[in-house]
Amino acid sequence: MPPESQIGVIDYGGGNIRSLIKALETLGALPRLVTAPEQMDDLEIIFFPGQGAFGDCMAKLDSLGLVEPLVNWIKADKPFFGICIGYQLLFEGSEESPGVKGLSVFQGQVTRFPRSELKVPHMGWNSVTLSDASRAPWTDLGETPYFYYVHSYFPTPLDSSLIAAETEYGVTFPGAIQRGRLIATQFHPEKSQKAGMKFIRNFLRKHTSATL
Prior knowledge:
Elements: E1 7-10, H1 17-26, E2 32-34, E3 45-48, H2 54-63, H3 67-75, E4 80-83, H4 85-88, E5 93-94, E6 108-112, E7 122-127, E8 129-130, E9 146-151, E10 153-157, E11 163-169, E12 171-179, E13 182-185, H5 193-207
Parallel strand pairs: 1-2, 1-3, 3-4, 4-13, 5-6
Antiparallel strand pairs: 6-10, 7-9, 8-11, 11-12, 12-13
């Protein structure tokens, strides 16, 4: 089986798929798009790309029959990489879409940045403070690497031990979480140039049999 067939990108009709696919291709890991549960059967890794409204994304996942398969994938501790909305959907709900239930893999809510003199959405480069810079896939990035953000909402996990990185923008918020073979980030590594590419490569090398 060729390496590209083992790396899947969830395609729910939105999200920043093109940038992520280009980043994966640059790393030599050509992915395939996933639009149906059966397409997940022989994958090693699933990427869930960012951008889109919480409620709209959940509705699309439900229409594709991907909600339960994704939850089961994560509960089985199979490699999963969520980006932006792919991070937020892991939680129970969001102020962006009141009454819409998320994947609810983790307890916690997604909230909007509080009113302040800072512009929302939070857009541009920002540093993250790592909980453990020696833990994969954060290795060789330094203690406070810079990544690219575009968002108005962020999750707060009830279990603070999930937090792998924190970011400051008026408030301190969880820039990324990690548990087992799951990583999920509020920033966009596929748009974060050298640091982002190294971060994705580190994850791929740890969780795929492909030679990268």
